[in-house]
Amino acid sequence: MLDKQNTRYSPKNFIKGKIVELIFDQMFREVDRFTILPFGYERTLPEVAQYAKEVKYQYILENIRSAPDFVLISKDKTEIFLVEVKYRTKPAKEELIAIAEKIKDKWNPIWIFLATPDGFYFDSCTRIINNGGEIAELDKSWVSKEIQNKYVELLKEFVK
To answer: Which long-range contacts (CB under 8 A, 24 or more apart) does 127-133 make?
Structure first.
């Protein structure tokens, strides 16, 4: 892991990512339409994450690392969504296309939940790619605006 504050893999960014994952988890639990299962490799295979630097075949780790952060299962068990959670100050189209293409290659269909200080976005990787990097705002049919606003304010408290 790099140590510089402005790098993507800094401890600050790692902690920011964990905060956003917790916000996603709590916000969707509050809605109570889905069973939320943490799915990222850090949670499902912590021993692998712990010894990642020592692993001889790093390409195997890359496959495991690409696991989405969450699985949402509808309460009636008819729908399942794989979700990758990200934080960005502002959505950048080129970066979103790159992220969507990379994870879609291994997990399809998959969705991206993007937290920003201005609000939340949620869309399928296929639509993000097809729409030139545009990502839809998190629709109130998923999470009410009232609940979203509450969690945006919470996000702002922790991520400055």
So the answer is: 128/96, 128/97, 128/100, 129/97, 129/100, 129/101, 129/104, 132/93, 132/97, 133/91, 133/92, 133/93, 133/94, 133/95, 133/96, 133/97
Run of H or E including 29: helix 11-31
pTM of the model: 0.85
Task: Say how many CA atoms lie within 13 Å of 150 toward its Cβ.
Answer: 12
Report the C-alpha gap between 150 and 67 in whole angstroms.
28
Q: What is the pLDDT of residues 107-151, one digit of tens each?
A: 999 999 999 999 999 999 999 999 999 999 999 999 999 999 999
Q: Which CATH architecture has domain 23-40+68-158?
A: 3-Layer(aba) Sandwich (3.40)
